[in-house]
Every structure is written in C-alpha cells, then in structure tokens.
Design a protein that fits this description.
This protein is α+β, with helices and mostly antiparallel strands. The protein is built from 2 helices and 3 strands. Strands 1-3-2 form a 3-stranded antiparallel beta sheet, with no helix packed on it. It is globular.
Length: 72
C-alpha cells in the first residue's frame, strides 16, 4: 500500500491537472483528509478474491467534476 506522503503527492499532482479526473480509491478518513479539493461519491461493494469469500468494502469515486450516475 501507499504511504501517506505518496497519497499526498498523488493528490497534489491530480489537483494540477487541467482536465477532468476520476480516481477510485479505498474509503477512509485519511483519504478524505488528503484529497479535500475533490468531490467524493461513496460506493458500497464487495471485494472478492477467487479463493476467498466476499468482504464488504467502501470505495470513493473521487473526481474534480460532478459525476452523473444512472441512465442519461
């Protein structure tokens, strides 16, 4: 896994992009602290490993623009 300083470097680099960005990242208080300049859309899901069982998880879809989910 990345260390906090690597996540901070990623957040800084993404903040400088002029275009639209979308990043899917594990949800957690540290992530929300490091990426405050971005929008968060929470997604509940299950992680499934081929030989193991399903594990509940929370993922953040992080972006610099408003996402529109559903049918257009």
């Amino acid at each position: 896994m990345f260390e906090r300083d690597r996540f901070q470097a990623m957040a800084d680099q993404l903040a400088g992009i002029r275009g639209k960005i979308i990043l899917s990242i594990n949800d957690g208080p540290e992530v929300r602290e490091i990426f405050p300049a971005f929008r968060f859309d929470e997604v509940a899901l299950k992680y499934i490993v081929s030989s193991g069982g399903a594990t509940d998880a929370a993922e953040l879809i992080t972006s610099n623009f408003e996402l529109r989910f559903g049918l257009l």
